[in-house]
């Protein structure tokens, strides 16, 4: 194996980015939340250090806690257009059923 043979360090020297292939960075992305209740807000707080833009849509009243994560309330159409990543945190009920359809995607 490469560790016991001493090749591991040589392989590391050839790799310019040690984290290559681990996915994209969140920095600079806009994360959209469909629902910014308890779960959505907790998720947004965990993503806040990544310096993301945060937008949300909620069919209820505006969330006063959205300011904690610098989240901007937008329309459903704007949510679809602005979000690089969409996180669905809304419960399934009659008002949210089929909210994400072919038109939304």
Can you describe what's shown?
This protein is of the alpha/beta class and 105 residues long. 23% of the residues lie in helices and 16% in strands. It is built from 3 helices and 4 strands, in the order H-E-H-E-E-H-E. The protein has a 4-stranded parallel β-sheet with strand order 3-2-1-4, covered by helices on one side. The mean pLDDT is 81.
Mean of residue pLDDT values: 81
**What is the global morphology?**
elongated
Sheet with the most strands: spatial strand order: 3-2-1-4
Q: What fraction strand?
A: 15-25%
The sequence of SSEs as H and E is: HEHEEHE
Query: Gap between N and C termini, in Å?
Result: 46 Å
Low-confidence stretches: none
The major sheet is characterized as: 4 strands, parallel
H/I helix tally? 3
The structural class is alpha/beta
Supply Rg: 19 Å
- The count of strands amounts to 4
Residues in helices, as a percent range? 10-25%
């Amino acid at each position: 194996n490469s560790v016991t043979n001493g090749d591991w360090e040589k392989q590391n020297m050839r790799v310019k980015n040690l984290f290559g292939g681990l996915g994209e960075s969140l920095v600079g992305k806009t994360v959209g939340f469909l629902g910014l209740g308890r779960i959505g807000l907790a998720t947004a707080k965990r993503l806040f250090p990544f310096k993301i833009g945060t937008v949300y849509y909620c069919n209820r009243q505006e969330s006063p806690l959205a300011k904690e994560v610098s989240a901007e309330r937008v329309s459903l159409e704007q949510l679809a257009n602005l979000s690089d990543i969409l996180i669905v945190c809304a419960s399934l009920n009659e008002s949210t059923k089929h909210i994400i359809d072919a038109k939304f995607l």
